[in-house]
Amino acid sequence: MTATRDARLQALHDENAAPLLRYVTWLTHDFSLAQDIVQETMLRAWKNPKILDADGDSARAWLFTVARNLVIDERRSARSRHEFQPEQLPELPSDDDIGRHLDKWLLSDALRSLSVEHRNAVISAYYLGHSAAETARRDGIPEGTARSRVFYALRALRLALQERGVTE
After folding, report:
1. What is the pLDDT of residues 50-77, one digit of tens each?
2. Distance from C-alpha of 76 to C-alpha of 78, rounded to nearest angstrom
């Protein structure tokens, strides 16, 4: 008996699903919502054995009526009234530079906490792009000392950033 019932439901679906989907899409202007409503309509047809036994026109009229009522129920629901569609959001994300400015502020604050030699070493190596040899010539120090200052300056900078809440 369930095999014939399933076959009748399959026939009902095959005959009416496409026109029903077009109708509900026309009503809602939302294809994914229309798919959900058609699925719910077919589920209700499956639960109602009288519809599976009805003739083609009666079953079709019942399906379209149920789908229309589901659309109305969806529009009346609290979810529909209180949820915003993406194009209706009151505040859409914008491309602002706040994060970049806050990062600059945080980094400059951490750099100010370093000693003058360490701060100059970091600025020379990472902001100005100087090599250790160029930094050594400019500051009048051995090249090994310039490299050592960059190494220890980076450790101190990492610690200063961690103290300000920046984690690795």
Report:
1. 877 777 788 889 999 999 999 998 888 7
2. 7
* Cβ neighbours around 15 below 10 Å, total: 14
Please tell me the predicted confidence (pLDDT) of residue 81. Answer: 61
d(CA 132, CA 61): 83
Eight-class DSSP state of 126: I
Domain spanning 2-84: CATH 1.10.1740 = yes
* Residue 167 vs residues 60, 157, 160, 162: alpha-carbon distances, Å: 63, 12, 11, 6
pLDDT tens-digit series, residues 126-159? 889 999 999 999 989 999 999 999 999 999 999 9
Q: Which residue has 């202007």 as its token pair?
A: 29
Beta carbons of 119 and 94 less than 8 angstroms apart: no
Phi, psi of 141 (to 5 degrees): -125, 160
**90-119: b (≥16 Cβ within 10 Å) or e:** eeeeeeeeeeeeeeeeebeebbeebeeebb
Domains of the chain by residue range: 2-84, 98-163
Q: Say which CATH architecture domain 98-163 belongs to.
A: Orthogonal Bundle (1.10)
pLDDT at 23 over 90: yes
